[in-house]
Amino acid sequence: MKINKRYLSGIFLSCFLMFMSVYNLNFAQSKDSKEVVAMVLGKSDAPLKIVEYASFTCPHCATFHLQILPKIKEDYIDKGQVQIEYREVYFDGPGLWAGLLARCKGDEKYFAMIDLIFEKQKDWARGNIDDTKAGLLSIGRQAGLTDSESLTCMQDDALAEKMVLSFQENSKRDGVSSTPSFLINGKLVRNMPYEELQEIIEKYLD
User: Fold this and answer.
1) What is the distance between the alpha carbons of residues 76 and 48, in angstroms, rounded to a whole number?
2) 152: enclosing H helix or E strand
3) Coil, strand, or helix at residue 52?
4) What is the pLDDT of residues 50-63, one digit of tens each?
């Protein structure tokens, strides 16, 4: 998916004004809101670092996460050769709300949460805002959250603003314009089949 740069400047305000108007929610400023920390898989001393940029509403990102990432994990991450840092891209409000929900059970449960989010992408990322809300709340329940707990996380506007600003800074610095995109030891590459990605990984490891 391509990133609409004009849209990004107003994404935070437009997303939350729309959500607030539809559900009459009041978003409290959270002084204790968490910082946006790096979400990583793999050992910190892994010789090869990969940064993945992905959107929760991007079908190609779901394919990568569900079909290709498990192969990378088995072949390289679990062997201590590769570390992957996951960075969220926000095309739209639903993608941002999914990112907030993904953090709801704590950073240590983040990747288990995004597994569910990508597995159920067709259930919540298509359709109207009611479908989106119902789909994300359903994911929360499957993860052991009450609807109230999920909504509290999705209504953390202070954290959401930090997340959007972090995304904007990172994507601008790294020249990211589509998802999924990857930085492999600092070099930007686009989405590709596992075999081609594996060739690049092996080249760097050699």
Assistant:
1) 9
2) helix 147-154
3) strand
4) 999 999 999 999 99
